[in-house]
Model the fold of this input.
Amino acid sequence: MSISVEVDPTFSGLNQTRVQNIINTVFEKEGYIADTVDLVFGNDKLLNDLKKEFFKKDQLTDVIAFRLNDYEEKTVEGEIYISIPRAQENANSYNEPFAKEIGRLIIHGSLHLLNFDDQTSVEKANMTRKEDEYLKICNWENLNSE
Done:
């Protein structure tokens, strides 16, 4: 079982153990195990390039997740990419703490790896409900402290 966390060197201060704990909590509560999950915190260019290459859309985004093995499997292999600048902008826009927004994006990406989607209004509402549920039980408050 391996969850790796990479942070663009221009950003710092994310507690990797707490990040890993959030992913593990979501997976365990949903009945999955993180086999190999890589979480990358990067900049807008990284996520925009991924969005263009894999989704054929030229737009900024806050989180992208790729499941690398079959969704039927209970052990998960995947990647989650989070844009630190988008997270900061979201936090400012919604008047939320930055750490809470990072926590929400980690949860959101984790749910995508578990085959949750947010294309329709019903799916979005379900994901938001799940995000809120996990934010209550995960330790997001100290995500941005080493």
Observations:
- The chain has a mean pLDDT of 94.
- The domain at 2-137 is CATH 3.40.390.30 (Collagenase (Catalytic Domain)).
- Strands lie at 2-7, 33-42, 63-67, 75-83.
- The longest strand covers residues 33-42.
